Amino acid sequence: MALSKQDKSKIIKEFAREKGDTGSPEVQIALLSAQIDRLAQHLKEHKKDVHSRRGLLSMVAKRSRLLRYLKARDEKRHGDLTKKLEIGS
User: Fold this and answer.
1) Crossing angle (nearest 10°) for helices 75-85 and 25-45
2) What CA–CA distance (Å, rounded) separates 70 from 79?
3) What's the rounded Cα separation, in Å, for the pair 66 and 36?
4) H or E, element range at 57
5) Would you kindly state where each structural domain of the chain is located, as residue ranges?
């Protein structure tokens, strides 16, 4: 259920702060959000997949920590990112 290389590179290109940027909080949060969306769709079909549900909860918690970090560092970037990704945080 991992993202394809094309999807990943598209997300990185869209959210990177500069060329070659893959580690900024914006890129990490965007990649996690895409994985979360994909896994949520999987779990709608496979309701009893407990192991994937645990992975989903882990990803949501990691995204939450990264969002908290970004908000503490730069609130404007946090606000722009949450609007762009349409996540309420």
Assistant:
1) 30
2) 9
3) 14
4) helix 50-73
5) 52-89
Contact by Cβ (8 Å): 33, 85: yes
Span 58-72, pLDDT tens digits: 999 999 999 999 999
The neighbour count for residue 73, using CB atoms within 10 Å, is 10
Calpha distance 16→28 (Å, rounded): 10
Query: CA 89 to CA 31: how far, in whole Å?
Result: 16
Whole-model pTM: value is 0.93
| Main-chain dihedrals φ then ψ at residue 28, nearest 5 degrees | -60, -45
Tokens (6 digits) for 1: 């259920």
Alpha-carbon separation of residue 34 from 27, 52, 72, 75 (angstroms): 11, 15, 23, 22
In degrees rounded to 5, what are phi and psi of residue 52?
-70, -35
CA angle 12, 13, 14 (to 5 degrees): 90
